[in-house]
Amino acid sequence: MTSKQLNESVEYLIEKGFDKPEIGVVLGTGLGKLAEDIESPIEAFYNHIPYFPLATVEFHAGKLIYGILEDKKVVVMQGRFHLYEGYDLVDVTYPIRVMQRLGIKKLFISNAAGAINLNYKKGEIMLLEDHINLQGGSPLAFKNVGEFGNRFTDMSEPYDPEMRQKLIKIAEQEKITLRQGVYVSVLGPQLETKAEYRMLKMMGADAVGMSTVPEVIVANHLKLPVVAVSVLTDECDPEKLQPVNIAEIIEIAANTEPKMIKLFRELIKEI
Description:
The protein is of the alpha/beta class. The protein contains six helices and nine strands, in the order αββββαββαβαβαβα. The longest helix has 25 residues, at 246-270.
């Protein structure tokens, strides 16, 4: 990755009409409907943006959408990239660097995750307080990373405390159950074994997924305040583990999505 590549991606989007967005949003698996609320949308498909990776997961749309939401300029990633698709971590996080160069000052991230904390139930939302990276690498581990920020990025508070507190308050006002906890990111795409779920619980994880952590690391590298939520789509009880049903996971994500959209829209209003 070079500054020249990033600049070409940004220039293409500016020519399309992406004009100084204030907020970037990454939408997770089954969580694409927020994009439908954007006023005066301008779309840029990933396969048209110079140096952009392509989304290969069938339920990820694969486009950047720019427009107005709650009177703010936003750019939304409808469809994200994962290591399990065969990308490297620089590819996975490339769009975050592009959005930051476009001008975003805050980043919102959503994902679908499994509940390891059995006090948390499918259909609930968890606000990420912290994370554990078990993806086996770092999006900052490349030769010229120093051109883009401090190689040894501090991760003592990866999720912006101010935006987290705002989301907690919004959830209370809207009577939305908002859990809080630690998200662990694994490589995938296979789901976990019973023994792996037991291990993750012992490590202190409350939810498990296959995304988000690389984007959050890069946001911190860029000194870009970030907040993230998980829509909990299944309960990972190793003593009662059932075969995974991807269709059910997508359905639960879709049913819970309006609550996530409400949280994000209210937060956009406030910042």
